[in-house]
Amino acid sequence: MKNTFTNFEEYFLLFPKDVQVKLETLRKTVHAQTPELEEYIGYQMPAFRYKKKPLVYFAAYKNHIGFYPASEGMKNFEKDFIERKFKFSKGAVQFPLNEDLPLDLVERMVKYKITEIEDKKS
Fold first, then answer.
1. Helix count (H) and strand count (E) of the chain?
2. Is residue 63 part of a domain?
3. What are 6-26's pLDDT values in tens digits?
């Protein structure tokens, strides 16, 4: 049976406590970039909107947290992913659960996406 949930808290409770702490830390880091965020569940993952536009999604898995910035901007961070030995694809990056979250990188990715949304409004 597929898990269904309606908010971040319900989603977080699906995971062990140590993973819940990482998910909450990621949530707070994203929120800290701007007060204008809306939380929602998209594609069965916690997600954020900025000015009604998708900003980022994230999800926990057995060995990593997937971070999906919904942006062409992933290319701008490939050097960081390679240097830090993160697995990544065109639209996602994997943060291993056995390592600290790269909060500085998350901040930069979220700020980039916010700027991208702002630039498209101009």
1. 4, 5
2. yes
3. 999 999 999 999 999 999 999
Total tally of structural domains belonging to the chain? 1
- Give pLDDT tens digits for 83-113: 999 999 989 999 999 999 999 999 999 999 9
Whether residue 105 is contained in a domain is answered as yes
3 in any annotated domain: no
Asked if 73 contacts 81 with a C-beta cutoff of 8 angstroms, the reply is: no
Domain interval for residue 108: 8-121
Cα 6 vs. chain centroid, distance in angstroms?
17
**Residue 1 forms part of a structural domain:** no
Residue 72: Cβ-neighbour burial (10 angstroms; 0-12, 13-18, 19+) = exposed
Closest CA to 41 of 54, 32, 30, 50: 54
